[in-house]
Amino acid sequence: IVFWLTPNYETVWRQLSRFGQRQSLWIWILRIIGGVFLLVEIIALWLAIHVTRRIITAINRLSAGAQEVGAGNFAYRIPVYKKDQLAQLSRSFNHMTESIQHLIEERTERQRLEQEMELARQVQESLSPSTLPILDGAQLAARYLPARNISGDFFDVIPLGPDRIGLLC
Q1: What's this model's pTM, rounded to 2 decimal places?
Q2: Could you tell me which of 18, 20, 43, 161 has the fewest CB atoms within 10 Å of its CB?
């Protein structure tokens, strides 16, 4: 701003007054811009805290779920509230634990069936004759081999007298 050197002080005063008005207008505009930036910063800080809490909460739930599964609790499920990527990860975790639980139940059922089959094999073996009778002029031999652990085949040798036997097949 250039001031003219004049003996009229009113002109100088008016020029200085306008300069002050312009300066107060600029200060007012800068204060508004600063307030807007401050508001944007506060919103950004709130969003950062909110997103960080959501991520940490989801990770803590996954960690707790992993500890439960590690302890053998395959029935544990992580609660899912949102539809974001962390919720998808939680759903995948729940699906995994459900699959593991199903596989364990199948294995337990298979072991139970195998034990029952072994018991049936032992019962079938106990029903087969352990020794064969001795006959004059004949030699008896028997071999029983099921195709699997057990079969529906059965045989027995029944003594009917000193020189007679009955065969049941």
Answers
A1: 0.56
A2: 161
